[in-house]
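User: My collaborator sent over this chain with a note saying "see what the structure looks like." That's all I know about it. Can you take a look?
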Amino acid sequence: MMPSCLLLVVALLGATLATPAAPARPDVLVILTDQWSPRYVSWDQPQVRTPQLDRIAGEGLIFDACYTPAPVCVPARISLLTGLYPHNHGHAVWGNPNQYHLPPAVAPMFRDIRRAGYTTAQIGKLHWFTGTDWKSEFASLDDYHRALGLDYVLDVSGPVDAATAKDAYAQHLRELGVLDAVAADLRQRYLDWEYEPRASLVKPEDYHDGFVTGAAVDFIRRQPQAKPLCLVVSLHSPHPPLDAPGEFAQMFDPDKLTLPANVPETFQRDGRTLDHAAVRKLLANYLGKIALVDQCVGRLVGALQARGTWDGALVVFTADHGEMMGAHGALTKGRFYEEAARVPLVLRWPGHVKAGRTAALAQMMDIYPTIVEAIGGEVTPGRFAKSLLPVATGRQTAVRELVLSEIGKGTAQRLMARDARFKYWTDEKGECLFDLQDDPLEMHDLAGAPEHRETLHRMRAQLLAQLCSTQVNLADGARSKVQRLREAEAQKAPKGRTP
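Assistant: Without extra context I'll predict from the sequence alone. Here is the result:
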């Protein structure tokens, strides 16, 4: 008869062999959208139709207080790759420059991920370089991408508004025989008003988000099973123009939509007088574009399921910044109101990240160290982004006491700070203060209220302290000449002897 201890060993070994081991390192999928208002997420707004994202959010942690480092594309996306604030970028990138390329030396996110043994890729809208400024440093775009740590890149910036465009999406439209018509339509939209809600000329499957998603699915299928991947899929929607394609343009009835109380009855914008009926028409198309993104998310999930890695995949859903959509009488981004400065953020990693919602403060750029920590890598020193895993796994309730956002126009820098309750900002017009606990729609500016003077001073001081404590110190880690000489001498000394 077999001894009982040996029987136990055999049983345990059998159980181990029968149960496949979970992947040691998860595949990572980052879904980066553009201009997605945090007001329009299904877990807060039942008008939104996103069943695929609902599933991811239901399995993950929703961050209800995540803020962009800058409420405009380029500086926000740069901060993601650098782990730094816009005021650290070295060139004061507070807006969207016409000629700029992100220096690889200050952008280590993809290199840190690749050093952890991952294949790295970004497909879709990049927008961390503009124009052809990269040619001053690199012989080709491939060289530039490799210097950033990317193994594969497909840049599709979004709609095509020129028949001479040569990117992969333009070539796709050219092969369909519709490039000239699509480019003319998009150009006219930009000239007239990009918020005019009108269906795209192309079918959903040929819309730029559909094209990007197809390219991402193909990329996933090509990857070897033995090596984990980190893929950033950057979709242009729901960014204007409001040209939701096909059925997505008719999915929402404007007359059945409701608007937040901070949308004025009427307001002037872009030479037009807009009332609630007009804004609901804009919103209907905007929500159609959001629904299209959700369909794309479903295709990405299916690709990881086919790869066999979905059950353990780390998924991040976010946006570079938000969209005003009529709030406070405004459209587009570039402001510090919640609609533009706050962004949706969901982390999903089964078995590691707890499901639910958190009010913990976060910055969109925190995604970078969160991923690197999750995959067992090391974050390049000197980053001001913070890993959110301590919150996501339940080890801590918060990793930040204050978040920042900043943007510039001309020589004026506009700055925002938010703590657990209050939001403060300053610009060329003055100061604003809002109590987000009692006034989540930011309808009552408290900056001039005598009873809130102490809070105003405190928030101003916290903003200044945060700016002072988040400066890149190029002398960090430097050693004096005397120290360097002593270290060199110690290297020469025989082992066991002190010089």
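A starting point for your reply to your collaborator: The radius of gyration is 25 Å.
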